[in-house]
Predict the structure.
Amino acid sequence: MHVLLRAGPVDLEGDLTLPSSPRGIIVFAHGSGSSRASPRNRAVASALVGAGFATLLFDLLTAEEERLERFTRHLRFDIRLLAERLGHAVDQVAHDPQLGSLSIGLFGASTGAAAALVAATTARVDAVVSRGGRPDLAGTALRQVRCPTLLIVGGADTEVLELNRRAMQQMTAPTALHVVPNATHLFEEPGALAEVTSVATEWFRRQLPTAAAREQPAGRP
């Protein structure tokens, strides 16, 4: 389903997929130079839908910004802007009559992972997964994240792996690191993306509360 998301002064295009009786919704934040058409994120999203989750993939930049970005590259590392727009998307999900009761997970790739972590400090987010992410770019926001966070990194992506390990040391939220053996940054090796999908799906299954649990009054068993 094609949707438009209002993010401050701009409208952003997205694709919303709703299985019957979704157990939660996963909002995707793509990395620099990518879009909601990312084949890797779409593969992960398809598997999550198969596991019963709704998914929302959307463009963090407008078509005109994407066009200019190809030449200037001035927005792909603007984590504050990307996080603000992601936060707007999460807020719209949280206040939507059809989606508002669902728990919300964020799946961020590359720079989108930093945006997801920053957004998680202010928006209603229940869990985060980072794929080949740059959590270090979230800066001081790392210490303010409260939701469970899974960092997935390729074993051969040595520089990013070290950056993830350092970022993990700064986080106080429940955080886990999953290393995909011999995988590089884009997880293009045979079976690598399938492993990413499997561990991400399991993380969301364990960490996202069901709608019934979310609505349970405090103090009630």
About this structure: The helical segments are 39-50, 63-72, 79-94, 111-120, 158-170, 192-207, 211-215. The two ends are 37 Å apart (CA to CA). The chain has a mean pLDDT of 90. The CA atoms of residues 90 and 124 lie 7 Å apart.
